[in-house]
């Protein structure tokens, strides 16, 4: 490893969806002390850093992405002292911690929004958000913009004299968008960014980054009636990926650069293609950005190779490393996705829930792990993927909490199926997620008894063992070596990363001979290297030592 390069260029970052990771206080909801108690597991897994989803005070209209105080911790998740203890313990075991910054919007319960409602039209309080008069005598929304959770992006407020202005929310109505043209907003978030960097966090994940600038005058976007929030297809959209958004990131980068220790800014940005994405990681902006094109690609060698090549080509001119991600708290778990006929990802839980072959999906997911962890740059793992968890597709309707469910008129179940609390141990729910007898905030399937950490821990053929071994080898063998493709046929992804590692992924329907390709190090469907044999079966992958 080259220790002069910043850690984030090659880091494997593990996403902790805090509500579902580990419950330390027995209320059925994950929390900071629960996470702290499981740090030895994460250190043993072999990841470099954690991204922890929001812990801020919140009414939880969108799982904590509706924040009332960006500098504090919700009592359900713990205290600032718990966060300090988490940071100290994480650093002791060699893990870095990245916090989630939700700056496009606040909660509708935030003091600023309450003040804006009370102050009325034209007030300075309203200028921190987007309040506008409606069209058609005030009765229609000010423009045609849409919410990521379905329906219009505007909600009308009622004043003392009856219905009056509308306010903008690109997400739920409980998440009013801030106007980043407002100096108040800019200065407040300078202080918030500093407050977390001062506390010692190693990085900041920027939520909904492309939303943080709007075209002045808020012109119509030209959305068709019933359009979905397909931001990866939009061109010149007035509420997404607007060029002025980059001013915000330059401002934050100047703040971050004044700190020691290679602090990281990583953005969540679903935009139209790798060239638009590369603009977020220009040398004076953010350091890295999630690569959603990779996550959204189907299990198809040509499609995946096109994403890898397109990503690397677009990032080379700006000098930023790629990131590779297969799942998150917003997407169908990839064991299930790869078990579907179409296998590409849908937007924000607007999934058609086509039937899935979970056995096939798991086989592909294990192969995909070896692909992901061999690609150049960093990788993001989503909690539970190291256990091979599938999406939970049969949550009872009355358990669903994602705003997508209500906003879609109960047509899209949303993202709860990937957010079911982790199974740690034992034979029945709550599987060690919470103290025995406590009901987790979402029900866990009884069938997860065979997928717990405890059940997989000592089994060399388990998905957990595969991830641990892949992460160990990655640390030992890989740094910033470039990728060189080998030609083993159009349905096979094969490449070298320098002299030490060759990765072969078979996406074809026939076995791929391995003779002459090198000494097997690890395979997605074999116990240890010895059992790989002389051919790689369909939907499996292997790492080899060439030469
Ligand atoms: C992206 C987050 O990952 C998602 O969970 C959230 O609903 C939206 N941003 C809005 O904050």
UniProtKB/TrEMBL annotation:
<comment type="similarity">
    <text>Belongs to the glycosyl hydrolase 13 family.</text>
</comment>
<feature type="domain" description="Glycosyl hydrolase family 13 catalytic">
    <location>
        <begin position="15"/>
        <end position="419"/>
    </location>
</feature>
<dbReference type="InterPro" id="IPR017853">
    <property type="entry name" value="GH"/>
</dbReference>
<dbReference type="GO" id="GO:0009313">
    <property type="term" value="P:oligosaccharide catabolic process"/>
</dbReference>
<dbReference type="GO" id="GO:0004556">
    <property type="term" value="F:alpha-amylase activity"/>
</dbReference>
<dbReference type="InterPro" id="IPR006047">
    <property type="entry name" value="GH13_cat_dom"/>
</dbReference>
<dbReference type="InterPro" id="IPR045857">
    <property type="entry name" value="O16G_dom_2"/>
</dbReference>
<dbReference type="Pfam" id="PF00128">
    <property type="entry name" value="Alpha-amylase"/>
</dbReference>
<protein>
    <submittedName>
        <fullName>Alpha-glucosidase</fullName>
    </submittedName>
</protein>
């Amino acid at each position: 490893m080259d220790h002069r390069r910043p850690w984030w260029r090659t880091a494997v970052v593990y996403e902790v969806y805090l509500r579902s990771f580990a419950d330390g206080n027995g209320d059925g909801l994950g929390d900071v002390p629960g996470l702290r108690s499981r740090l030895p597991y994460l250190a043993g897994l072999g990841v470099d850093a954690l991204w922890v989803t929001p812990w801020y005070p919140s009414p939880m209209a969108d799982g904590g992405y509706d924040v009332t105080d960006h500098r504090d911790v919700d009592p359900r998740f713990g205290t600032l002292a718990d966060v300090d203890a988490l940071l100290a313990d994480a650093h002791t075991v060699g893990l870095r911690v990245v916090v989630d910054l939700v700056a496009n919007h606040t909660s509708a319960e935030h003091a600023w929004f309450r003040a804006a409602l009370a102050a009325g039209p034209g007030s300075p309080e309203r200028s921190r958000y987007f309040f506008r008069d409606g069209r058609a005598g005030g009765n229609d929304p000010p423009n045609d913009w849409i919410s990521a959770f379905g329906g219009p992006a505007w909600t009308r407020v009622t004043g003392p004299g009856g219905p009056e202005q509308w306010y903008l929310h690109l997400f739920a109505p409980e998440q009013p968008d801030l106007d980043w043209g407002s100096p108040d907003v800019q200065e407040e978030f300078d202080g918030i960014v500093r407050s977390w960097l001062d506390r010692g966090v190693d990085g900041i994940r920027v939520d909904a980054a492309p939303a943080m600038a709007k075209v002045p005058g808020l012109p119509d976007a030209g959305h068709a009636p019933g359009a979905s929030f397909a931001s990866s297809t939009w061109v010149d959209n007035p509420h997404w990926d607007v060029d002025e958004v980059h001013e915000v990131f330059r401002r934050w980068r100047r703040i971050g650069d004044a700190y020691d220790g290679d602090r990281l800014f990583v953005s969540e940005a679903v935009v139209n293609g790798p060239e638009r994405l590369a603009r977020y990681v220009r040398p004076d902006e953010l350091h890295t950005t999630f690569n959603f094109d990779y996550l959204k690609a189907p299990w198809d060698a040509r499609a995946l190779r096109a994403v890898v090549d397109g990503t690397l080509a677009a990032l080379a001119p700006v000098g930023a490393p790629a990131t590779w991600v297969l799942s998150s708290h917003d997407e169908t778990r990839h064991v299930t996705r790869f078990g579907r006929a179409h296998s590409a990802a849908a937007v924000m839980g607007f999934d058609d829930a086509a039937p899935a072959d979970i056995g096939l999906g798991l086989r592909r997911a294990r192969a995909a792990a070896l692909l992901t962890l061999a690609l150049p740059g960093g990788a993001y793992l989503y909690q539970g993927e190291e256990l091979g968890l599938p999406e939970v597709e049969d949550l009872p309707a009355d358990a669903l909490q994602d705003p997508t469910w209500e906003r879609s008129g109960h047509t899209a179940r949303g993202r709860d199926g990937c957010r079911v609390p982790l199974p740690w141990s034992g034979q029945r729910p709550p599987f060690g997620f919470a103290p025995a007898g406590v009901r987790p905030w979402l029900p866990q399937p009884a069938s997860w008894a065979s997928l717990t950490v405890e059940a997989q821990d000592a089994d060399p053929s388990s998905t957990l063992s595969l991830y641990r071994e892949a992460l160990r080898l990655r640390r030992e063998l890989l740094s910033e070596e470039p990728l060189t493709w080998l030609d083993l046929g159009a349905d096979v992804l094969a490449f070298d990363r320098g002299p030490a590692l060759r990765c072969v992924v078979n996406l074809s329907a026939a076995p791929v001979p391995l003779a002459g390709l090198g000494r097997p190090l690890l395979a997605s469907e074999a116990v240890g290297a010895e059992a790989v044999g002389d051919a790689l079966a369909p939907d499996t992958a292997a790492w080899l030592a060439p030469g």
